[in-house]
Amino acid sequence: MKPPVKDLPTGDAGLGKGPLAQLNDPPSRGMEVAGVGLSLGWVLLILVYVLVTPPGSETRTLGLVMTLLMVFLPIALIWAVVITLRSIRELRAEAKRLQATVDAMRSSYVQAQGNGLKPSVEKRLDEIAASTKQAETVLATFTSRRDAALSVPSADRKAALTPPRPEPAAEEPTLALGTPAEDLRPPLSVADFIRALQFPETPEDKEGFRALRLALEDRTSSKLIRAAQDVLTLLSQDGIYMDDLQPDLCHPELWRRFAGGERGRSIAALGGIRDRASLALTAGRMKSDPVFRDAAHHFLRAFDKTFAAFEPNATDAELADLADTRTARAFMLFGRVTGTFD
User: Fold this and answer.
1) Cα(293)–Cα(32) distance, rounded to whole angstroms?
2) CA pair distance 194, 3, nearest whole angstrom
3) Residues 315, 321, 324, 329, CA torsion sign
4) Residue 16 backbone dihedrals phi, psi, to 5 degrees
């Protein structure tokens, strides 16, 4: 939370003797005194002129008019100049006061950021965004279908990926070398699989690195993890980061239909990335960079295969969590660029 700015009291009484107090001091009356002096001096000059000049009967009326003009017109000009100069001085003082206030606020903000503190407004906005996101996820979960016949019961939902079914016709005779080491490992859990697709948030994210290590030890998920890491690295070269993209939420039903092999406009809502700059940069590099294009297609194939094995074991809430990972956002981006949802 941002600490209060102590150098910026709101009232004039609390300004003390600092620089802001000096800016708020009442302006001097030098210009007003000069205006009064010039006015009196001009009136005296006119009186002297009238007394010295002999009166004439035929020019009395005209002389009176000229005398009035000679008296009041210069005085009006004098006070117009005085008022203008005073306004300019007040504007300059106000500008200095505002500049001092802005400098003090900027210094306080930089100091708060350097101490790792978040302003209260930003913290409140983050809380509102988090609660809104949670509410949208719950809505997407409850509005999706819940057909128990199409998913594994919760008691049997332990592994993230459904193991591939062996085909007797394609099997080769095995050698008596014992059980492979990968078969002795416990299956990758759904939570670890989703956490690995998000990748570690910071170098101190121990939970993220643990989940990533477990996912890399799994033969199926490791292919997707490495493919996602490659495309995320390539995208970052163009300044495209998944954390900056905010995809539209969609029902888990669409993800299940995608896992079942459905493609085209019927599942176009899965491509929730709407950032035009990121889409344009990605499409341009897909056309000009063959290495980038090959990495993107390899990633899409790995995502399709791995997601098809993940969907039967996942609940609607877990599908919504996976859709919010960096890997899923990269899939949405490349899916829109390559025409998966057209």
Assistant:
1) 77
2) 38
3) negative
4) 65, -140
Residues of the chain with pLDDT under 70: 1-28, 50, 53-66, 112-185
Q: What is the pTM of this model?
A: 0.51
pLDDT by residue (tens digit) across 202-255?
888 899 899 999 989 888 889 999 999 999 999 999 999 998 888 888 888 989
Amino acid letter at 138?
Answer: V
Contacts of 258 (CB under 8 A, 6+ apart): 267, 270, 307
Burial call 301-336: b when 16+ CB within 10 Å, e when fewer: ebbbebbebbbebbbbebbbbbbebbbbbbbbbbbb
Cα separation values, 19 from 94, 99, 107, 196, Å: 13, 11, 15, 55
* CA 315 vs CA 65, 117, 178, 256, 301: distances in Å: 98, 38, 35, 10, 23
